[in-house]
Amino acid sequence: MKRVLLLYGGRSSEHEVSCLSARSVLAAIDRDRYEVVPVGITRDGRWTLTDGVIQPRAGRALPEVADSGPTVALVGSKDGARLVQVDEDGETAKVVGRIDVAFPVLHGPWGEDGTVQGLLATVGVPYVGADVTASSIGIDKGAMKAAFAARGLPQGPYVSVHRRRWDTDPSLVAGTLEDQLPYPWFVKPARQGSSIGIGRVATRDELEAALVEAYGYDDVAIVEQGFASPRELEVGVLGNEDIEVTAPGEIRPSHEFYDFEAKYLDDSELVVPADIPAEVAERIDHLAREAYRAIGCTGMARVDFFLTADGDLLVNEINTIPGFTPNSMFPRLWDAEGVTYPQLVDRLLDFAQEPA
Ligand SMILES: Nc1ncnc2c1ncn2[C@@H]1O[C@H](COP(=O)(O)OP(=O)(O)O)[C@@H](O)[C@H]1O
Ligand SMILES: [Mg+2]
Fewer beta carbons within 10 angstroms: which end of the chain, N or C? Predict the structure, then answer.
C-alpha cells in the first residue's frame, strides 16, 4: 500500500475551493491501493493532521480547515520522507509515518505556484502535478503569457501594470492603456485564480477600483482586452512524456462572466463535449499540447480557451492544479473520455511515481 499525503486548504484565497476539491479526491481515491494521510493547511499556513472529514461549519456554505488538529511537518531521510507530529509541548515530536507520494490539492498562491512543490522536492517526496518551474510559470499570468507568446500561441492583447507604475502616475497608465487596448478591459491580479480579484472595466472611471482590487492580491495586474461573451472552451491534459488531451467542454456561466459565484455557488452549465465543429476541436487539441509544452508542464493541466464572436480561437490560461470539485470541468472531461474519477486519481498518482 502506498501512503499518500493529501494536502488541502492552504494560505490562498482559494482555501475553500481546495477543501471542496480535496473532499472529492478523498472520496474517490482507491483505498485498496492507497492509504491516505489527510493534512489540512490552515489559512495562516499551519500543517495539521486531520481525520479527513471535510465539512462546512454551521452557517457556512463552503468548508475550511479547522485550526484544531495537531501540527505536522515533513522531514526527509535516507530511506524516504516521514511525516512527524509536533507534540503539544512544542518541544518534542513523534513520527506519524512514511510518505510515498504527495497529492497537493491546493489552488492559487502557496500551493499551485511551486512553493509547496519545492518543499516536497526538497524532502524527496514525489508529487502529483507540475514541477516547481512549470507551476510558477503557470500561476503567473504575465510569465504564462510570455511563455505562450514565445511558442507562437494565439492570445488576446494585454498589458501588465506594476503597482508602482500606477501609484506614480495613474493618468499616464490610463492613457497608455487606452492607446493600446479598446474598452472593455478585464483587470486581473497576475497570480490568483478562481476569478478572485478580477474586474471588468468599461470606462476610465472604473479603472482605479478594478486595479485597487487586483493589487489586493498581487503587485502586478494584467489588463486584457475584454471580449463580448466569448465561448469558453476547456480541455483536460494528462501525462509526462506522452500526453493525452480530452475533447473540449464548454462553460456557460450563470453570470455575466465566469466569476467566483458562478464557479462554485451557482450552477453554471458545463456542456461536455462542447458542440463545436471538428476543425475547432482539432485546433484546440493542438494548441493545448503546445500550451502544456510551453510551460514545461507534467502530470496534468486544464487549458482554457476563448472562441470570440469574430471566430478567433485564443488561449486564455493553463491551470496546473485544476478544480476537482463535483462541479469541476477537469474530472467531467475525463469521465466523458471513459476515465472515471477514481481512475483519474490513480493515473495522477502513477505519473507522480515516474522519475523526472
Ligand atoms: N479578456 C477577457 N474577455 C472576456 N472575458 C474574460 C476575459 N478574461 C477573463 N474573462 C472572464 O473571467 C473569467 C476568469 O478569468 P481567468 O483569466 O480565467 O481567471 P482565473 O485564473 O481566475 O480563472 C473567465 O472564465 C471569463 O469568464
Ligand atoms: Mg480561469
Answer: C
What number does the ligand 1 atom closest to the CA of 263 have? Answer: 25
In this predicted model, what pLDDT tens digit does every residue of 272-307 receive, in sequence order?
A: 999 999 999 999 999 999 999 999 999 999 999 999
Helix axes 141-150, 132-139, angle to 10 degrees: 100
CB of 264 within 6 A of ligand 1: the answer is: no
Ligand 1 centroid to 150 CA: how many Å? Answer: 21
Task: Give the number of the atom of ligand 1 that is nearest the alpha carbon of residue 304.
Answer: 18
Question: Are residue 148 and residue 293 in the same domain, yes or no?
Answer: yes
Q: Compute CA distances 199 → 160, 161, 222, 224, 245, whole Å.
A: 15, 15, 11, 11, 31
Query: Tens of pLDDT along 129-188?
Result: 999 999 999 999 999 999 999 999 999 999 999 999 999 999 999 999 999 999 999 999
- Same domain (yes/no): 143, 250: yes
Ligand 1 within 6 A of CB of 189 = no
In a domain, 133, yes or no: no
Same domain, 150 and 277: yes
Query: Which residues on neighbouring strands pair with residue 161, listed in sequence order?
Result: 221
Is residue 317 in contact with ligand 1, taking CB distance under 6 Å? yes
- CB of 197 shorter than 6 A to ligand 1: no
Count of domains for the chain: 3
- Dihedral sign from CA coordinates of 120, 126, 129, 135: positive
- Domain span at residue 113 reads 2-127
User: pTM of the full predicted structure?
Assistant: 0.94
Task: Judge if 144 and 269 occupy the same domain.
Answer: yes
Crossing angle of the two packed helices 170-180 and 207-215, in degrees rounded to 10: 100
Report whether residue 224 contacts ligand 1, using a CB cutoff of 6 Å: yes
